[in-house]
């Protein structure tokens, strides 16, 4: 990596961490002007910045507003870089189906995870909220998802997560998808009980979890 | 099978291997405080094992007890699966009566015109008891001077009972206790989940009705009133509590669109509910507004006569669910918002109920020294909801917590030294020392932000729906016994209410009770409220555009 590249990637990453949209746009424009590969700028600049932001969230330095402002800066930089992505150089993204389970309409947590997944390079299909188990399964089959991500804030609706896992098993396709769960009343114990592949305590954790779950597949490929 | 021996109750349970300690305790009839109903979330159900027994349990899930407590043999009863015979020591749960519960509530004066009327028929020598004109029972002799009613405020956490003389219109006695249901399931949703199963519903119902009967006994005894002269009981409380007390499956409340399955503005025979009063006595369920805006709010609207107020008024009941109503020109908008259990001390490192040793007040002197007041004046052992609000507000006001909710660095400019030296690390994370043994964590501040942000977002949407600029809001009435312990300054400093409302905030106390008394004393007010709730515009926050955005903005201090 040339020094110029390295400096620009660092600027992009810092702009995201500093929640500075203008700087993210300026650095992204410079990437384009210098003809630097947009894909690498996103990976090593913007996404790396979001990863640092997630780390700060974990360390309780940042909270939800900061995380969202970081993602605003990230998206601002992305908008500049996206038109310059060479389609051939882009590897296939991992796909995630996300939604709030049936009976629940609280979706702030889900939206946050969605943003974090997108900014970390996942291709996210958001079904929204109050989603019956069958729709998660159908959509996952349809788009060939790697991960099904389920969210709920309500103790009264968390059993819907178990229903998704059961339906996958009944259709004999359980091993085709990783199921991850999160939300206020959810715990690792609950995730284990329903046979989910993982539980994330917050949005930053969800990214780590999603990455670790798709990593072995990558190694095998 | 394994056998678990519970101390100090000296009870045993034999259960399948892999059962949790909590499951075994329930089998044995041992009560372990488990506010989150075994969801491994609240971390409040710690029990102690002998060190040699520790290896016979496996704690599933991410367990929350700090390493030090584990080393002392403490495990979470809901997370610890048992694989051998063990002995478990359960800490004494504080008595249900030892908590600080406010029962005072403001109320507009109503004319004395109760639903219950007694008339002595001298020719027959009997006294007839009429409810809304219908004959309930007959008594020998002239008993017309002895006519009593009861209001029960069935709070999610607390129960308050008031005995009222229906002849003179005066309140004779009140008594309060923790709602025994909160030991099995702290919050409304856990309660709905448990109540959605037949056995759970029966247990929750039995618990609350039993405690209400005990409280009625207490107030009747204190006033020298016979239970057989109590003819009507008003159940005031949120929609879920009314379901559970009436024995109606609350499941629909737990799923979108969160509808009520209960017929309200209606009477039940007291006998059918298990409430032990006069033969033929009645239980009245007041009108409700929606699944999450219940009879407690209807009673509150009655207590403050919100709809008759000439000013633009916001009425807020602060609790796990923030319920609120806004009135302008006689028109009412209402909503409810999920604040979460932080105000109840849940999910707070040293959070506790308002019992002995709870920090309930905190202020910072100009020199930076801290003044802390605990309930009963004993050594601080934890923080209750009002203390939590006070502490966070003071730290925000003195720059120890920034607008973004983050603890500043101890060496930041402008922080008095005495405050700076309390900024320390505990378990590797920033914390603020209140005493040597009690501290506030960064995560605690985040929980307060989420709770107050939810209520503030609700306020913003009500103002928006009613097209009321905050400058035109003339009064804010804070209802509820929790709200009664708060200060106006804390509320505006942390931004639970807009700063502009400073100086216009009033505290009306437990209006669920006082409004219930108005229902008891004046039958017409019930009709009036039944008609009023039909006209209330319910604002469903889940369907509001930009709720996310407004909520996130409301997180800042």
TrEMBL record, chain A:
<keyword id="KW-0479">Metal-binding</keyword>
<dbReference type="InterPro" id="IPR036724">
    <property type="entry name" value="Cobalamin-bd_sf"/>
</dbReference>
<protein>
    <submittedName>
        <fullName>Corrinoid protein</fullName>
    </submittedName>
</protein>
<dbReference type="InterPro" id="IPR050554">
    <property type="entry name" value="Met_Synthase/Corrinoid"/>
</dbReference>
<dbReference type="Pfam" id="PF02607">
    <property type="entry name" value="B12-binding_2"/>
</dbReference>
<feature type="domain" description="B12-binding">
    <location>
        <begin position="93"/>
        <end position="221"/>
    </location>
</feature>
<dbReference type="InterPro" id="IPR006158">
    <property type="entry name" value="Cobalamin-bd"/>
</dbReference>
<dbReference type="InterPro" id="IPR003759">
    <property type="entry name" value="Cbl-bd_cap"/>
</dbReference>
<dbReference type="Pfam" id="PF02310">
    <property type="entry name" value="B12-binding"/>
</dbReference>
<dbReference type="InterPro" id="IPR036594">
    <property type="entry name" value="Meth_synthase_dom"/>
</dbReference>
<feature type="domain" description="B12-binding N-terminal">
    <location>
        <begin position="1"/>
        <end position="93"/>
    </location>
</feature>
<keyword id="KW-0170">Cobalt</keyword>
UniProtKB/TrEMBL annotation, chain B:
<dbReference type="InterPro" id="IPR012675">
    <property type="entry name" value="Beta-grasp_dom_sf"/>
</dbReference>
<dbReference type="InterPro" id="IPR027980">
    <property type="entry name" value="RACo_C"/>
</dbReference>
<dbReference type="Pfam" id="PF00111">
    <property type="entry name" value="Fer2"/>
</dbReference>
<dbReference type="InterPro" id="IPR042259">
    <property type="entry name" value="Raco-like_middle_sf"/>
</dbReference>
<dbReference type="Pfam" id="PF14574">
    <property type="entry name" value="RACo_C_ter"/>
</dbReference>
<dbReference type="InterPro" id="IPR001041">
    <property type="entry name" value="2Fe-2S_ferredoxin-type"/>
</dbReference>
<dbReference type="InterPro" id="IPR036010">
    <property type="entry name" value="2Fe-2S_ferredoxin-like_sf"/>
</dbReference>
<feature type="domain" description="2Fe-2S ferredoxin-type">
    <location>
        <begin position="2"/>
        <end position="94"/>
    </location>
</feature>
<dbReference type="InterPro" id="IPR052911">
    <property type="entry name" value="Corrinoid_activation_enz"/>
</dbReference>
<dbReference type="InterPro" id="IPR041414">
    <property type="entry name" value="Raco-like_middle"/>
</dbReference>
<protein>
    <submittedName>
        <fullName>DUF4445 domain-containing protein</fullName>
    </submittedName>
</protein>
<dbReference type="Pfam" id="PF17651">
    <property type="entry name" value="Raco_middle"/>
</dbReference>
């Amino acid at each position: 990596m040339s020094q110029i590249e390295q400096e620009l990637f660092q600027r992009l990453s810092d702009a995201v961490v500093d929640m500075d949209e203008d700087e993210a746009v300026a650095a992204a424009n410079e990437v384009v002007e210098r003809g630097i590969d947009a894909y690498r700028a996103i990976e090593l600049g913007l996404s790396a910045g979001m990863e640092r932001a997630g780390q700060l969230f974990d360390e309780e330095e940042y909270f939800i507003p900061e995380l969202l402002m970081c993602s605003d800066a990230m998206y601002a930089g992305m908008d500049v870089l996206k038109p310059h992505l060479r389609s051939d150089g882009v590897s296939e993204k991992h796909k995630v189906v996300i939604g709030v389970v049936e009976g629940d309409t609280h979706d702030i947590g889900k939206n946050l995870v969605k943003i974090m997944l997108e900014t970390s390079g996942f291709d996210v299909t958001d079904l929204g909220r109050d989603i019956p188990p069958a729709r998660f399964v159908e959509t996952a089959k349809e788009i060939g998802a790697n991960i099904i991500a389920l969210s709920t804030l309500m103790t009264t609706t968390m059993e819907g997560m178990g229903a998704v896992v059961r339906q996958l098993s009944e259709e004999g396709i359980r091993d085709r998808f990783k199921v991850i769960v999160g939300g206020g009343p959810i715990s690792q114990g609950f995730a284990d009980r329903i046979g989910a592949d993982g539980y994330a305590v917050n949005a930053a954790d969800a990214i780590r979890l999603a990455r670790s779950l798709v990593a072995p597949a990558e190694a095998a490929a | 099978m394994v056998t678990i021996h519970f101390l100090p109750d000296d009870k045993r349970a034999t259960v399948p291997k892999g059962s949790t300690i909590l499951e075994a305790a329930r089998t044995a009839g041992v009560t372990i405080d488990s506010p989150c109903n075994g969801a491994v979330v609240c971390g409040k159900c710690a029990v102690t094992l002998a060190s040699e027994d520790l290896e016979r349990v496996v704690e599933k899930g991410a367990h929350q007890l700090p390493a030090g407590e584990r080393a002392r043999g403490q495990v979470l009863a809901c997370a610890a699966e048992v694989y051998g015979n063990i002995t478990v020591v359960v800490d004494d749960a504080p008595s249900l009566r030892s908590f600080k519960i406010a029962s005072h509530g403001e109320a507009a004066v109503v004319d004395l015109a109760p639903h219950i009327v007694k008339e002595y028929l001298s020719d027959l020598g009997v006294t007839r008891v009429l409810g809304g004109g219908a004959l309930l029972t007959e008594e020998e002799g002239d008993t017309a001077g002895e006519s009593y009613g009861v209001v029960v405020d069935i709070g999610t956490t607390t129960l308050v009972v008031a005995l009222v003389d229906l002849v003179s219109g005066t309140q004779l006695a009140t008594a309060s206790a923790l709602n025994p249901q909160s030991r099995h399931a702290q919050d409304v949703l856990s309660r709905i989940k448990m109540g959605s199963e037949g056995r759970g519903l029966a247990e929750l119902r039995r618990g609350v009705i039993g405690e209400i009967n005990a409280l009625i006994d207490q107030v009747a005894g204190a006033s020298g009133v016979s239970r057989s002269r109590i003819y009507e009981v008003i159940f005031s409380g949120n929609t879920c509590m009314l379901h559970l007390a009436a024995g109606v499956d609350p499941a629909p409340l737990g799923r979108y669109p969160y509808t009520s399955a209960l017929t309200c503005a209606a009477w039940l025979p007291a006998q059918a509910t298990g409430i032990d009063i006069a033969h033929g006595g009645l239980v009245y369920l007041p009108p409700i507004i929606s699944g999450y805006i219940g009879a407690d709010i209807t009673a509150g609207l009655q207590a403050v006569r919100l709809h008759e107020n000439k000013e633009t008024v916001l009425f807020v009941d602060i609790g796990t669910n923030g319920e609120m109503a806004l009135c302008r020109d006689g028109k009412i908008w209402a909503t409810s918002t999920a604040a979460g259990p932080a105000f109840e001390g849940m999910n707070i490192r040293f959070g506790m109920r308002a019992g002995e040793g709870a920090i309930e007040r905190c202020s910072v002197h100009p020199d930076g020294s801290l003044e802390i007041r605990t309930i009963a004046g004993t050594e601080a052992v934890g923080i209750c909801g009002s203390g939590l609000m006070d502490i966070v507000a003071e730290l925000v006001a003195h720059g120890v917590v920034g607008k973004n909710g983050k603890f500043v660095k101890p060496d930041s400019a402008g922080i008095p030294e005495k405050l700076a030296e309390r900024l320390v690390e505990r378990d590797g994370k920033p914390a603020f020392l209140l005493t040597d043994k009690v501290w506030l964590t960064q995560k605690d501040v985040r929980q307060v932000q989420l709770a107050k942000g939810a209520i503030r977002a609700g306020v913003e949407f009500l103002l928006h729906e009613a097209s009321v600029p905050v400058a035109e809001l003339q009064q804010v009435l804070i209802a509820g016994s929790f709200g009664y312990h708060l200060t106006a300054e804390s509320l505006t400093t942390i931004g639970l209410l807009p700063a502009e409302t400073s100086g216009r905030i009033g505290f009306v106390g437990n209006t669920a009770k006082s409004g219930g008394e108005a229902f008891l004393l004046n039958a017409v007010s019930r009709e009036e409220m039944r008609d009023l709730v039909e006209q209330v515009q319910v604002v469903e926050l889940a369907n509001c555009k930009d709720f996310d955005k407004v909520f996130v903005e409301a997180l800042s201090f």
